[in-house]
Design brief:
By secondary structure, the protein is α/β, with parallel strands linked by helices. The protein has ten helices and 15 strands. The strands form three sheets. Strands 3, 4, 5, 6, 7, 14 and 15 form a seven-stranded mixed sheet that branches. A six-stranded parallel sheet has the order 10-9-8-11-12-13, sandwiched between helices. Strands 1-2 form a two-stranded antiparallel sheet. Helix 3 crosses helix 4. The relative contact order is 0.15. The model has no long low-confidence stretch (mean pLDDT 96).
């Protein structure tokens, strides 16, 4: 048997229960991964509370999508990975990933080999968050060299990776964060830093090509105003609201949801190997402290990412 953390009901962290259950059986094209680390994201606590992608969940169920670990059982036909390979990936998003467990069944095409210069903790953190930034900015918005991009919450889990991915394609990046994160954000390569606790970005920024909003709500609504005509608005927490669009019918709003994709994972792995993408892991907590990890994430003040071991 294996340990897993099961969500019994939607609501508070007391609904996350440590259980013993059978290891998963494999479907066609799947491998069994012995999990070393699990990366957490805001969608974890949102789904636990009944939001996020809760509508796809049957209770009791197992949350979590981001993993790193080793191949325990390889895929029968024409395997891409062999037993013992170190891998990482985002499992079955936006479906049920069952990742809060010692063993996880994963479609092989959602995984990539872990770069040797990444620890398992870092690899678990380099999944949903950078995939979100990569798929939204590079594949959808097609950001190119010289584009001016505003990143709201540039020190956060998705934000700090978005900045690096943008710098990798040669964009000019304006990043907002609180003053205590100024050096962290500048070290990531931000060209202009704005301390949102002291400064009003709407007075300092205008005519940007793309806004990548990691905050949502009022900040998202204000952000759409600083785009140039024909600019692109991406809001990760909530999507772009209809009343924001009414303010700026002349810009493109991209409704964006990240999807599991092994090829994109490989693109991120390559960036990491080449030294163009690093992840900041702010805390590694033991598996049993998943509730504490959720509460820490819910403060929305975390620099970088939280990981379970």
């Amino acid at each position: 048997k294996m340990k897993a953390i099961e969500l019994t009901n939607f609501g508070g962290v007391e609904n996350l229960q440590l259980i013993k259950k059978e290891k998963p059986t494999l479907n066609n094209g799947e491998v069994l991964v012995k999990v070393k680390n699990i990366g957490l994201n805001p969608v974890d606590y949102k789904t636990r509370r009944g939001g996020g992608i809760a509508s796809r969940f049957e209770l009791p169920g197992i949350l979590g999508w981001d993993i790193s670990g080793e191949i325990e059982v390889e895929n029968d036909n024409n395997p891409k990975f062999k037993k013992g390979d170190a891998v990482f990936g985002m499992v079955n998003f936006p479906g049920v990933g069952n990742a809060y467990a010692e063993y996880v069944a994963v479609p092989e095409n959602q995984l990539a080999l872990k770069p040797s210069n990444l620890s398992f903790e870092e690899a678990a953190a380099l999944t949903l968050a950078p995939l979100t930034a990569y798929q939204a900015l590079v594949k959808e918005a097609k950001v190119k060299k010289g584009d001016r991009v505003l990143v709201q919450a540039a020190a956060g889990g998705v934000g700090h990776l978005a900045v690096q991915i943008l710098k990798n394609v040669g964009a000019h990046v304006i990043g907002t964060a609180s003053g205590k994160n100024e050096q962290f954000v500048k070290d990531l390569g931000v060209d202009e830093f704005i301390d949102y606790t002291k400064e009003d970005f709407t007075k300092l920024v205008s005519d940007v090509d793309v806004v990548f909003d990691g905050v949502g709500e009022k900040v998202g609504e204000e952000s759409i105003k600083v785009l140039k005509q024909g600019g692109i608005m991406i809001s990760i927490p909530s999507g772009v609201k209809p009343d924001w669009k009414a303010l700026r019918p002349d810009v493109n709003a991209i409704q964006f949801l990240v999807v599991s994709n092994g090829e994109d994972m490989e693109a991120l792995a390559k960036m990491t190997t080449e030294g163009n993408l690093t992840v900041t892991v702010s805390d590694v907590l033991p598996f049993e402290k998943v509730g504490e990890a959720h509460l820490q994430l819910e403060t929305r003040k975390t620099q970088g990412k939280i990981v379970l071991s």
